[in-house]
Write a structure and sequence with these properties.
The protein has 18 helices and 12 strands. With 560 residues, the protein is α+β, with helices and mostly antiparallel strands. 33% of the residues are buried. Bound molecules: fe (ii) ion.
């Protein structure tokens, strides 16, 4: 016999099969574990007795044969004792810890019996191998399923990261991709707890409004507080994985939580909060074929797989948080630069202080009424704010001259669009304002400057700013004249529509006054003012709002 049974259970099954052939249950002698044990017909279901307890003559023979085989390492021992042909044989390859089979041949040929035993062992081994292979395939399927879901989620997370920008707070990111992760790791819910909610080692009840929760889980804040404090006390800065040993019971001290993973969302010493996965669900058993019996599938505990994915989510959120920090610092820097430039212009020409802001407001209003996108409106607004920045390069004596300019002086003033471009072109994030800054003094009929462009060859920003700039210049007071009434300025715009200015833009601009009447004069220009005459932009009447708009506009740009 070349085959051997892999374990005692198969040996017993073999004995049962032989019983069906010979009518008598062979005895299985298990020496593979804790000493000599004998399973006999009356004790077949797990009861064993030692050879010393055996009371038949056969038992003595078996005892003798076992010792003989163990000592001599024989594979089988057969004898014809008192007219009875008996066989004792090894069923396992391991001579040191053998499983033996004893049977009375009952007059059958030893060769025949051995052949039957061999055939049955072969069949049982084939079946065992088939079961083992099936289990392996099931295990692979489960692993592949997990890997596929993991990869799918990571791909989605990556795609989302490509789409999101600095305007997305961590809460919106968490809301976007944590629900998919909840499905992958089979959690009842995944929560994002922002660090700002956790002050002085406490969470206030109202702070839960800032949590992002993917599933139906709403524990008391004391539970979250306890979890986070326990994590903070832990010497391990990685994920904290807790599972209860009592099915259905909560973890001690964490009411409502059977198991959980807590992962910090942080970079270096800066904490952005925590990700918390709670309560492994049992749905997983239904997600694959019901016959699956692989332990991992049915396990209702969080483990390495779930923890590693939550760490991946934490890393993504940490990276985005760092990007947000970076963009905010860039926005602050750029906002400061723009504010400094505006202040410099206003300080240089106090009589026209507020002009840039008003032109920006008018231009944005026109853009909105023309149906341009929100981003484009913000860009035009920024171009309006900066359109006269080149006046920094015009001598004060010319800029503040109360009387009429000489041709030479006027030629210098006409350089300000080009100077403005040269100043701003070094601020790469603001390069989108350059067309408007350079061409806001072009005329529709080509008589303007600096390029003398005609019609729609003039960039749209330039045509819009030209109308807004002219209207504000006409209606604003100067030390040497009062501003025109709205009606007079509007009449001039209409008269020159199609000549100096784009007629369509003039129509759009003046229509806004019909729809929403605005004061036609500025009360005073003897001191710097920053008022907005268009009712549509009354929310712009503070520098803080102006800075917000600038910041927003820059943010839009930086994102691109
Ligand atoms: Fe200008």
């Amino acid at each position: 016999m070349n085959q051997s049974v892999p374990n005692i259970q198969i040996a017993r099954e073999l004995a049962t099969r032989l019983e069906s052939v010979f009518g008598v249950l062979p005895q299985v002698i298990d020496l593979s574990s804790d000493g000599m044990k004998l399973e006999c017909e009356e004790q077949r279901s797990a009861h064993y007795r030692s050879p010393e307890d055996m009371d038949s003559a056969n038992d003595a023979w078996v005892d003798f044969a076992v010792k003989q085989m163990t000592i001599e390492s024989q594979r089988s021992y057969a004898t014809n004792s008192e007219g009875r042909l008996q066989l004792l044989m090894h069923l396992s390859q391991n001579i040191e810890k053998p499983i033996l089979l004893y049977l009375d041949l009952l007059g059958h040929s030893e060769l025949l019996v051995r052949s039957i035993i061999s055939a049955n062992i072969e069949a049982l081994c084939y079946r065992e191998n088939a079961i083992a292979s099936k289990n392996k395939v099931e295990s692979f399927i489960v692993q592949i399923t997990q890997d596929f879901e993991e990869l799918t989620w990571l791909r989605k997370a990556h795609e989302y990261m490509e789409l999101c920008d600095a305007k997305h707070p961590l809460q919106s990111i968490a809301s976007a991709f944590l629900p998919d992760l909840e499905q992958v790791i089979r959690a009842q819910a995944i929560l994002y707890i922002p660090a700002v909610c956790f002050k002085s080692k406490q969470l206030a009840g109202e702070d839960q409004a800032q949590f992002v929760t993917t599933g139906p889980f709403d524990a008391d804040t004391s539970v979250y507080t306890q979890l986070i404090n326990d994590w903070l006390c832990s010497p391990n800065s990685g994920p904290m994985v807790l599972n209860t040993n009592s099915p259905g019971a909560s973890l001690p001290g964490y009411e409502g939580i059977r198991n959980c993973i807590l992962v910090p969302v942080s970079k270096g010493s800066k904490s952005y909060g925590w990700l918390l996965a709670v309560n492994k669900t049992s749905e997983q058993a239904n997600r694959v074929d019901p016959h699956y019996s692989v332990k991992e599938v049915n396990s209702a505990c969080f483990g390495t797989f779930e923890a590693s994915l939550l760490v991946a989510a934490s890393n993504i959120m940490s990276a985005q948080a760092r990007n947000i920090d970076f963009f905010e610092s860039q926005e602050l820097l750029l906002t400061g630069v723009v504010r400094a430039i505006i202040n410099a212009i206003d300080a240089k020409d106090t009589y026209t202080c507020g002009h840039s802001d008003r032109v920006a407001s008018y231009a944005k209003s026109i853009a909105k009424r023309m149906g341009l996108s929100v981003d484009e409106c913000e860009r035009i607004f920024m171009a309006g704010v900066l359109h006269d920045v080149g006046k920094i390069g015009v001598p004060d004596a010319i800029l503040s001259k109360p009387g009429k300019l000489t041709d030479f002086e006027y030629a210098i003033v006409k350089q300000h669009p080009q100077i403005g471009c040269e100043i701003l072109e070094h601020l790469k994030p603001l390069n989108y304002v350059l067309p408007g800054v350079l061409h806001h003094h072009e005329a529709y009929n080509g008589s303007g400057y600096p390029a003398g462009l005609v019609g729609e060859d003039i960039p749209l920003h330039g045509r819009i700013l030209a109308v807004a700039d002219a209207y504000d210049a006409m209606t604003s007071n100067r030390p040497y004249r009062r501003g025109m009434p709205h009606a007079k300025a509007a009449a001039i715009l209409r008269a020159e529509a199609g000549k100096t200015w784009d007629a369509n833009i003039v129509d759009v601009f003046l229509a806004s006054f019909t729809e929403e009447p605005v004061p036609n004069t500025i009360e005073s220009t003897s001191f710097p003012i920053c008022s907005f005459k268009n009712a549509e932009d009354t929310d712009m009447q503070s520098n803080s709002h102006l800075l917000w708009r600038i910041s927003n506009s820059i943010s839009n740009l930086v994102v691109e």
